Amino acid sequence: MLLCRWKQPHICLWICSTFAFCIVGFLIIVKRTQTIEVIGKYFSNPLLSRSTQKVSDEKNTSEKHVVHRGGIVRDFPVKIPSDDELDNMTDTKLEDLFWDYINTIQALCQRVVRIGKIEDGGKEVCADDPYRPRPPCLVYSFGINNAWDFDEDAARIFGCEVFCFDPSMRDKAETYTYAKDITFYMIGLSATNEVLPDQWKMRTLEQIRRDLNHTERTIDILKIDIEGFEWNTLPQMVHSGTLRSVKQMQIELHGRGVSDKLKVLRMLYEDGFRIFMRDRNLNCKYSREGLSRERTSCMEVSMYRVTS
What we know:
The radius of gyration is 26 Å and the shape is globular. 35% of the residues lie in helices and 24% in strands. It folds into two domains: 2-63; 73-305, 3-Layer(aba) Sandwich (Rossmann fold), CATH 3.40.50. Strand 3 and strand 4 form a beta hairpin. It has helices spanning 2-5, 9-43, 50-62, 83-87, 91-102, 149-158, 205-211, 230-240, 259-270, and strands spanning 66-68, 71-73, 112-115, 123-126, 138-142, 161-165, 175-179, 182-185, 188-189, 194-195, 201-203, 219-224, 246-254, 273-280, 285-286, 295-296, 298-305. Strands 7-8-6-5-12-13-17-14 form an eight-stranded mixed beta sheet, sandwiched between helices. By secondary structure, it is an alpha/beta fold. Mean pLDDT is 80; it is low at 1-6 and 35-75.
């Protein structure tokens, strides 16, 4: 004001402009800091300062977010209700719940690696520590159908021993070495040890681990693509405790949502598995009256174990 009285308006204008610029700059910095805190709250952004990260961690704790190895697991918004509630739901509501559950990411994986081809047959693997497979890692691959791209990539990228199983490949020897670190067995995954009428030899995961002397080893990747048999097999694996030796699991889930399948998904959740990636297999599209949109009855689901 004094400068303006001295009839130096250009200096007065310069001072006012500079002051306004400083105020705007300060507001931008404050806003940016708040934005980074929000990002850090959900994704543990490594760009955060220690003090900002501490504030973010405190907010996560106050909101009852659970921080696990490999990512942040939030309170799950789509919960599967009790058996009684499921049994009293209509088919349409069961399908909606199944679809919503599968399509909700439950855990964060910052580095997802595609193993196998981009089309049907490839799977998404979490390469974050501590889930990233490292030699001497172990991979079990159920359901081959003469497509070896997943198994070849698992051996090549991660340096794992890969054991492949498929009872339908009758043109192969019962056991043979497909390639370095890749071994094939003409065995299927089941809830019981049996031989089916078509002479398929079926074994539980627990029995297979015993037969291969792997009971003391961790299964780094368990791939299951067994055309609907998964729904009968998964409950047995949960009840036997075999899945406690599995770090991550890639499954193609077949069929539409019914109460029994939702119960199996709830078992996996209670056993510590969280979905970090999912993909729709468009080869299984369907629609029917009562559904709001077209869906698929084949879902590729990747999950890792957050509890031991």
